């Protein structure tokens, strides 16, 4: 019972982290139609920038400044790169972000080297907040939850209560009309891209110390962000939130409980074959849920695309 | 996401074979046969120019990538379908062939090796039929994301299902146990080279012809406008399905050739990185033209295999090259070449030669200067202490002294500077070369 | 247009092959490991150690035979078996006769098979494969061949040594085994279960699981299970980012016992574990760094630090590889006849500067050597890793570990 | 007596709460030229989309030559001999003009999903395409990318694609929309020429075109047909005058 609670908290942390990436991506994707493959790279940049800043003036300034730099970099990429490619269509845009992801990883290695960075949790937060049946919940996790929820509330406020938010929402559904109304759509695109990447940057800053700061960190996160927004439904912030939490919890619980395929198969009345070593399906029999935890989201996505192409909360078909 | 490829109005009509029917009826296939004969002869002659085994290995790799990229372009370029998991079809074909190879070895079955890729193709097609049955009902994001999901799934299975995939070590075999094929046992690289070349010619020709069949033509129509195609009596879904299966077939052939060439198949043949690479390769070459992927595959293989021998930083250059291509030449390398067709037809190519020399050579030198700066920075930062010597462009110098830096900066600045100065002249010449009439 | 691209290919191809014809005098060693991509850090660090080992042990001593120098040429295989095979072919064409590789047993497996086939099919250009780090036991058992020599202890030998220590520790009653889901992770798990069962039947394995390799973003759920199981010790074969994340997560989430590892030092990991890992992380290695094995080893380490102030010697076996190869070439009197060199390597006994004797077992070409179990700490550390204050201090040593372990290898000699 | 070419019974369509088509009964005979007119937003294009299964109807039936079309996909309906054009030009922009037309001929000539025939080898196919290009006066544009044609030429191509397959029921959605007078005349002549002997159903705003072409006219207002009759009688119908035509005719003169 206590373990369930602990897993709920852990899944929440993973899910919220994912949400900070997918929130920006779903805005970018649904407004500009860009499958931004470099989104996780901006997350990585956030961690690296924050690490370098934290060496000089401490973690908290890093938390403040690094996302700003990442956001500026993102806006710059939109202004001087994507905008040019936009006229050629969506596939070239996608290739552009693909190449960008490659390049960012290489540049990071060029500047910071190939080793893991010793970017760590600030001293103030380096204690155990509380324990549940021997499982300690580090204070830093509470801090991560706090930051992500504040960002979600902030985003929701901006999108629903401010003028800019209204325009963005309108642009999500009717990009041409908004342009016809005299709004500067390219500027909005640049802003959304900047903010989206800055959010990814925040995620990088706070995830770097716990999940590691190394050149492969973008690749590890990679396509799972896309999976999240497709499951949630393109353009839906709530969808992104729900899908992020869903993925966070599914993967956490799948890893925590060793559910074996043989138990399931036995459960539905299929007997374990006698001669396992000669059985061509022997590997299927020995699968356990932690082994496949991280591919469960992909399975979920394929199923959703087959049976509900618009995603959980999406209004239009992808 | 829409399934249109590019919105560039200047983009040429892509894979259009439509010579006036009159000419076709006269039976003058020579115009279209020309490049094929040249390519065939070139393939035959290559081993006489490059005799070393490593050159043969690299060329084998190239031709396999060519088949794979052409098959991929049947979807991307011809059918407007963006796949993120296409390595799976090539990989599965390869794994299947490897199992056949091992079966032949273990049970001494009389089986001629040259036929093996055919079975890889059939297996690839079979799997494409399975996946295509539900993924081809839409193009765009839906198709792309299903392909991504299936790709990740199979790649993950490759380490879990050891019986078929052999885990991370993969499965390996020995190609020489097959029936000798007219006395050839495929012990030597050169024999494998000709086998691969044969399959390359055959598959390329078949893929080319496929694009000229009714279903191949309708693939283009569905790419351009799926709804309109529906109102012409064609189900967009079935057209996509047939393209998908055909693509899977040729991917499987590439996989079979991979099995023969390397005698080992591993998880890397299935994973997302391989799927991403083939997308980049195809795009680099140019999706709009049938021969685009051929150029892309050759260029990328050289980049990956040859440039990486010269510098650790090869992937920085590769990344920069992709960005530059997509930003300035969305038609890819093939598009760049085909841009010159109008000027060529007008007989004005000669007017371009001098301006090209004036701009592109300094630009190239400038770029090399920038590369030199990057290499020197890298050496300065990451080289061993005390090991100040570095060799670049056949010159050895001290990366910690000032002079080489000044030279590199000067070369870069002057090169780019001259290129910038002469660029308007080139543009003018370009406009002139593309205008009918007048004298050049 | 096809002609133009082919011309490009022509010139590029002649470049690589032509550029290398010169300098055939040196004895060249091809280092085929990842120098770019996600695993580049281990590859690059390995290359640095090889380059230093060659200079320190051979070239600075006046070279081999009649003054020939040794040179290590780096080939970037991007940790891909396919690329490795291409680079192998390029290396062979450049006249290189010695191949070293270590990262990924998958690559090692592809290389050893390819080299076996190559040597069979091309007797004039045979090569030797000196494996310095790929530890899959199969390479010196079912898949062994005459051309492959392993200078690292294989996974079973390491586990044998680890379990000796664990079994002797009375405070450990329950152990948890966790590893990456692939051949090596499975081999570690199987060996740990088997050996603990033999050596300490009263000890309970409370958890034994595999996680996807390189894909896990957050190890917290696994750490929870470790804590919940009440284990006293954890055994893991993880490496790279998976090792660091797993280790940090286990420690942060409340586990208090030791973590026995294979690869939890260097490449930034020691610095990243820092204070949190102190006295908790234990790892198995050959060659003792703290205290250092000999004065010559101290000289070696210091001269390495002069070159790479931020670097580590975390693979002392690299020096053993070069030392033994040089010795074998001297004994064979030639560097060109690899069969003679291989025969000299077989059965060789060699005194390592890192302490202890080395013995190349002829039955399976597995090097038998002393194994050390060290602890991650900042006390008594002469040579810390990653420019931090932390390093690995040897706690216990098993001499000539698994000297008599069985092998299924049926060596076919030419 | 044979069944009418197209017969609608109780056809309804709602989007959410809004009922756009409120029960339409209409019967169009063989070789009849039938125009549907009505104010903007009356549901004319929606009606077209219902007939061709672009949208599923909420209620009612559509019969083509007496055969119920319920549950069929657009491509299946097309194969039964009903072909349509679109209000917004709907061609294959990156393919050549010739290719556009040739693709439209493929199914009709029985090629289906063939991958063993080469299109360039079929004389019947290529000559057929050229013949249609000649009909629509685009022969000298045959090798140009369709996306590069002028607007009027694209509309002509659209009609060419629509009739190419030899369907006997042709539906044209505002074929002259956005055209100049001379272009309109050109298209009107074209329609007359290419639909000779076929059933034609068209939505059109230009009253000149409507009264010049149509045998019968239906007036659609707010999702209902308020009158169906010959042009003269429709023109004289006071209901029509009141609801729509008066204003439209005034605008015309």
Protein described:
The complex is a heterotetramer of chains A (318), B (440), C (414) and D (253). With 318 residues, chain A is mostly helical. Chain A has one domain: ABC transporter involved in vitamin B12 uptake, BtuC (Orthogonal Bundle), CATH 1.10.3470. In chain A, 72% of the residues lie in helices and 3% in strands. Chain A has helices at 2-32, 39-57, 59-86, 90-112, 139-161, 163-173, 175-180, 185-211, 217-221, 224-232, 237-256, 261-267, 282-285, 289-292, 296-307, and strands spanning 128-132, 135-138. Chain A has a two-stranded antiparallel ribbon with strand order 1-2. In chain A, a hairpin with a 2-residue loop joins β1 and β2 (135-138). The longest helix of chain A has 31 residues, at 2-32. Chain B is mainly alpha-helical. Chain B has two domains: 30-339, ABC transporter involved in vitamin B12 uptake, BtuC (Orthogonal Bundle); 348-433. Chain B is built from 18 helices and four strands. In chain B, strands 1-2 form a two-stranded antiparallel sheet. Chain B has a two-stranded antiparallel sheet with strand order 3-4. The longest helix of chain B has 33 residues, at 350-382. In chain C, the strands form three sheets. In chain C, strands 7-6-8-9-10-14-15 form a seven-stranded mixed β-sheet, sandwiched between helices. In chain C, α2 (40-57) packs across α10, α2 (40-57) crosses α11 (317-332) and α5 (155-168) runs parallel beside α6 (183-199). Chain C is built from twelve helices and 15 strands. Chain C starts with a helix and ends in a 16-residue tail after the last strand. The longest helix of chain C has 18 residues, at 40-57. Chain D is of the alpha/beta class. Chain D is built from nine helices and ten strands. Chain D has helices at 44-51, 74-79, 97-106, 123-135, 151-164, 181-194, 207-213, 231-236, 238-252, and strands at 6-15, 18-28, 33-37, 59-64, 67-68, 82-84, 169-173, 199-203, 216-221, 224-229. In chain D, the strands form two sheets. In chain D, strands 6-7-8-3-9-10 form a six-stranded mixed β-sheet, sandwiched between helices. Chain D has a four-stranded antiparallel β-sheet with strand order 2-1-4-5, covered by helices on one side. In chain D, a hairpin with a 2-residue loop joins β4 and β5 (67-68). The longest helix of chain D has 15 residues, at 238-252. The chains are: A mainly alpha (318), B mainly alpha (440), C alpha/beta (414), D alpha/beta (253). Chains in contact: A-B, A-C, B-C, B-D. At the B-C interface, α2, α3, α6, α13 and α15 of B face α1, α2, β2, α3 and α4 of C.
Structure characteristics:
heterotetramer, A: 318 residues, mainly alpha, ABC transporter involved in vitamin B12 uptake, BtuC, two-stranded antiparallel ribbon, globular, B: 440 residues, 2 domains, two-stranded antiparallel sheet, 4 strands, disordered N terminus
